[in-house]
Amino acid sequence: MRELQKQIIEFEHTLPEIDPQAEIRRSIDFIKKYLKNRPFLKTLVLGISGGQDSTLAGKLSQMAIDELREETGNDEYCFIAVRLPYGKQADETDAMEAINWMKADKILKVNIQNSVDELVQAIEVNDQKITDFNKGNIKARIRMTVQFGIAGDNQGIVVGTDHSAENITGFYTKYGDGAADITPLFRLNKRQGRQMLRQLDAPTHLYEKTPTADLEENRPSLPDEVALGVTYDEIDDYLEGRTISDKSAEVIENWFKKTEHKRSLPYTVFDNI
Length: 273
Hints:
Blueprint: H1 3-12, H2 20-36, E1 43-47, H3 52-72, E2 78-83, H4 92-102, E3 106-109, H5 113-124, H6 132-152, E4 156-158, H7 164-167, H8 190-199, H9 204-208, H10 224-228, H11 232-239, H12 246-258
Helix pairs in contact: 2-3, 2-8, 3-4, 3-8, 5-6
């Protein structure tokens, strides 16, 4: 095994294989413990895209809330699933199917298009040009702003969907979908998340669909693996300690090094920069 690979696996806390039911239990207990240790919190908020990660995080969140209500008798505990389209979302049917499958307590829909477009226009008035890629990041940050806004009025916290196969490459927007209060999927790679969804009897097409961030308008529905230059199978193998091609390993390690800043809180003079 490569030396950096060992360090990354230790950092990401991934295992070569998992017991899906045990990891489901582990995530639910983690969410419950976080809320029980903070009795002023009663709500979980999560944006649902209709893809694998938000489907899994949403189901685990609802299961945790259901158990808390039953154990405490407190009906204030609630899970809010949020739809956050920019205009019309191509896979909205998948998002609603995911929400219905997880049996979300409450569903909200906030169309972010006007907010994003007006913000971009306000910036460009100052002789700044917002690229399509940058606008995609703005969309992600506006979505997270909405979720924190909802959480703030509901004694809530925001659940993140970041997992270790995403974390290793930094394939998320800093202070966008990378900003959250808790990340119950961290330690899992992509295939392990699929194993958990199979264990939970999720609709198959929701976790077998091609993963995509779908943030760029010039490259709509761009597959994650195309943007990354490496497949999730290779990333998962790497995180499980398996041998992959040197070329793919170097791509993964270069992403890890380049996106290190995303895995850190704001730097201070005491940090190693």
